[in-house]
Structure formats: C-alpha cells, structure tokens
Amino acid sequence: MRLRHPRWPSLLPARFVTACATLGPIGRKLPAPGTWGSLAGVACFAVFLPRASPGLILAATALVGYLAVGICGEAERILGRSDPGEVVLDEFVVMPLCLLGWSALAGSPPFWVAAVAAFALFRLFDILKPLGISRLQELPGGWGVVADDLAAALAACATLHLGAWIWSVV
Question: Exposed (0-12), middle (13-18) or buried (19+): which is 45, by Cβ within 10 Å?
C-alpha cells in the first residue's frame, strides 16, 4: 500500500491553506517559526487539554494530524517547496503528544516544568532528527511534513518519562 496525499485540500482556497499551514503570521513573520509554532502548540495544550485523558489527546492529535497532513502537503504544492520553514502547523499539532501522560510522571511536576522540558526536548529532536526521524521526511506530501514531527514528539515524550523515572529512583 502506498501513501497518497489527500485530495480534499486542493478544494480549499490557496490563501486559506497557507494561512492555516503557517498559523497566520507565526510562520510568516517571526524568526525561528518552528519554535514559535511549537510554543503555540504548548499554549493550546495548556488552555484546552491540560487535564485530558491520554486517549482523548491521542484521538484529538490523530484527527487534527490528518487535517495537518492535507493542509501542509497542499501548502508545499502552493509554495513550490518541500517542507517549507514557514509551514508550522505540523509542529503545532504534535505538541500535545510531547506531554502525553505528564501528570503520571514521578512526583507529578508542575505543568510549567513538564511543558518547558517537553518543549525543549521536542525542539531538540525536531532540529537534530536522530533515530531515523529524518527518513520520515521522505514520505510523500504532507505525510512527510507531519511524520517527522510526530516521531520527534513521541521521542520527546519518551525521554521526558525516562528522565522523570531516573530522577525518581536517584
């Protein structure tokens, strides 16, 4: 089975697609747009999902992630570049995964501590793309745009939990 880019985004106005993909001015006007898109994702999580169950976070991320695949892939086509830096919807939608289960961490740190650690770890994994994360960018269209960030978010989450576990046993 071969992954194909969803066709529905081509029905949307180009201006709408690029505005969604760049989160408006965040991706177009600010320096280091991926960092700002990630911060927007943490802020959104803090407002809407801080006490959500892991199941709800996974379901919401899967749904919004699929929408991001379509929109980011269409934005690539419109902008004529592969994974353009100003497209930050991918960073935004995966940030809740970085904080998956944070309240179950040893000693349940305050949200802001978990959020700062998750953000820093995500940016590290997103920028360096270790552990084969960079290969995910080779997937077609929006799948490649979103998949590498998804993997970076899961790696950040696992590292956050591992660090908390090590901290609790030391």
Answer: buried
Q: Is residue 21 part of a domain?
A: yes
**Whole-model pTM?**
0.93
Residue 1 lies in a domain: no
**DSSP summary character for residue 8:** G
Can you read off the two tokens belonging to residue 149?
């960030």
Give CA–CA dist 160/113, Å, rounded: 11
pLDDT tens digits, one per residue of 2-55: 788 888 999 999 999 999 999 999 999 999 999 999 999 999 999 998 888 999
CA distances from 51 to 20, 62, 102, 166 (A): 26, 18, 10, 24
Q: Which amino acid is at 36?
A: W
Domain with 83, as residue range(s), is: 8-169
